[in-house]
Structure formats: C-alpha cells, structure tokens
Amino acid sequence: PIVFVHGYGLSTQMWSLIWQKLQDKNYRLIAVDLRGHGGSTIGTAGIDSTTMSADLAAVLESLDVQNGVLVGHSTGGFLSLLMGLNHQKTAVSRLKHLVLLSTLCGGIGRENPVLGVQVPLLKGGLMQPILDSQTYGQATTRPALGSMPSAAVAEATRRLMAQTNHEPLLPIVQALGRENYATRLGDFPLPCTIIHGTADGTVVPLHAEEMAAHLPQVTVQMIPGGGHMLNCERPFEVTQQIK
C-alpha cells in the first residue's frame, strides 16, 4: 500500500499525476483529505498538529495498512513525522518507509518572508478572494513553484487552493511556525526518503538539511530547480523515489 497525505490548502486531487503513474503497477493506493480539506470536515476536535497526526494513525489502523509506504507532502509530511513520533507502535506495525516530499519538521518561518505575508491574509479573511482571482491567486502561489513553472501547473495550484476554506485553518499554519520536532527525530522509528526542490520558496531547502541531520535512517534526493509542488512539477522523478 502507498498512502498519500497532501499539504496545506490542498486535497487528494494534488496526487493525480503520480496516481496515474502508479495505478497500473499493482499497488494499493490510498489518499487522505486532511481535516478541513477536500471532503473532510474539521470535526469537533478542531485543527491542531496532535489531532491531525492522530488522524493519520487512525487511517492506517482502520484501513488495515500492512507494510505500507507513507508519502507526506509539506504539512502532510510534518504531520506524518509527528504521527511516527507520537504513535510509534502504529507506525512500525503498519509502515515500512516514509517519503517526505517538500516538507519540514517545524519552524517554517526561517528564511521564508512569504509566511509573514500569508498569515495576516489568513487572519484578515483575505486569502480566499485573492485565490479566487486568477491574476492575484497565481502571484500568491508562485513561491510554491520552481524556477521554471509551467502556466498549467501554476493555474492548477491556484485552483486547488481556491477550493479550500482557509480561514478556519490558521491554527495549523501557526503550528508549522511555532512547533519544531528536530530534537525528537533521533527516535524516529522508520527509514525515510527526503525529496526536496532546490528552488522551493515555501519550505526552503534548509528544512531538508535539518531533517537529514537528525533522522537516524535517511536518504536525501534534491531536485535541481524544483519548487514546492514537486508532485505536479516533477511527477516522474518523485514516482521513481516511491518504493
């Protein structure tokens, strides 16, 4: 089984290109909509990293995932790491590998001036109308793309993010800045593969370096010129690393 966990503001739709490349290879493919994203409601427990990471453990248990690979993009990777730390028994019994795609273990604000703009937009309820505009929406999502993004990828990213109601999701964005689990990664129980673009302007490459320095079993694949949306920008290269 391969379990896909998307990033902030997105949904299971973000995996469509990679899904197409894997669906004929006899894998069991599972994609999860995080709380408040896609088809998932926020629920009574609300939005926070502890609750959302526990959701992932519950998915692995309820779907009886055996010997699986968990692929987490951005916030989805952050939550996957926390799931592995807080629910080690589930992680070890259900998974054999974790793929960390364009992700981090916390402290997202470092060397990232974009976050300083986006958080006030979220607080002020302005993110939605900006994303609804093709011109301003693409300008807002541009840092998520690499050095030479195609117009199709830029527009697809904007449309995916425009489908999400962002205002209630502020707590998880704040958690990405306030929390950092680097010092706990030495206890992470699974082998990991880090895939990161050298031109990622959302989760800058220093986060890949930080995780690699602390994870006990890790392989790193840096993609030259790749941005934050590697699943859309470089689906072939990402698919080659999922195994």
Give the key terms.
44% helix, 243 residues
Q: What would your notes on this structure say?
A:
This protein has about 240 residues and is α/β, with parallel strands linked by helices. The protein is built from twelve helices and six strands. A six-stranded parallel beta sheet has the order 2-1-3-4-5-6, with helices on both faces. Strand 5, helix 10 and strand 6 form a beta-alpha-beta unit. Helix 2 packs across helix 3 and helix 7 packs across helix 8. The radius of gyration is 16 Å and the shape is globular. The protein starts with a strand and ends with a helix.
How widely separated are the two ends?
10 Å
Round the Cα radius of gyration to an integer and report it. Answer: 16 Å
Percent of residues in helices comes to 40-55%
What would you call the structural class? alpha/beta
Main sheet makeup = 6 strands, parallel
Backbone shape = globular
Low-confidence stretches: none
Can you count the helices? 12
Strands of the widest sheet, in order across it, are: 2-1-3-4-5-6
Strand content: 5-15%
Helix and strand succession? EHEHEHHEHHHHHEHEHH
Q: How many E strands?
A: 6
**Average pLDDT reading:** 90
SSE order and pairing:
Blueprint (H helix, E strand, L loop, with lengths): L1 E4 L10 H7 L6 E4 L16 H14 L5 E6 L1 H12 L1 H7 E7 L11 H11 L3 H6 L1 H8 L9 H12 L7 H9 L13 E6 L8 H9 L3 E6 L6 H4 L1 H7 L2
Parallel strand pairs: 1-2, 1-3, 3-4, 4-5, 5-6
Helix pairs in contact: 1-12, 2-3, 3-4, 7-8
